[in-house]
């Protein structure tokens, strides 16, 4: 399946709920619940939201996060590799 940009309505979703979710995540970033959030909402092959909130690294002068920021996996790769090996 190939993904494409579209509206929430095209994907059978509510624009109001998507907007509310984006504002909630933006508030989390502003309140430092976490340093960075990248969200992608897609349904039926339609991307209805792809946003980045927060900073790319810790610190006062940190660059803003972009949708294409690459995160180091560090120790998270171990359970992913173990799961793949068991399949």
TrEMBL record:
Q: Name one Pfam family in it.
A: Beta-lactamase
Describe the location of the Beta-lactamase-related domain by residue ranges. 39-86
Q: Which Gene3D superfamilies match?
A: DD-peptidase/beta-lactamase superfamily
Q: Protein name, please?
A: Beta-lactamase-related domain-containing protein
**Which species is listed as the source?**
Paenibacillus herberti
Origin organism lineage: Bacteria, Bacillati, Bacillota, Bacilli, Bacillales
């Amino acid at each position: 399946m190939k993904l494409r940009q579209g509206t929430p309505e095209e994907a059978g979703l509510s624009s109001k709920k998507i907007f509310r979710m984006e504002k909630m995540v933006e508030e989390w970033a502003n309140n430092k619940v976490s340093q960075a959030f990248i969200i992608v909402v897609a349904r039926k092959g339609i991307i209805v939201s792809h946003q980045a909130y927060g900073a790319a690294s810790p610190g006062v002068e940190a660059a803003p996060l972009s949708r294409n920021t690459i995160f180091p996996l560090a120790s998270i790769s171990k359970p992913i590799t173990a799961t793949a090996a068991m399949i």
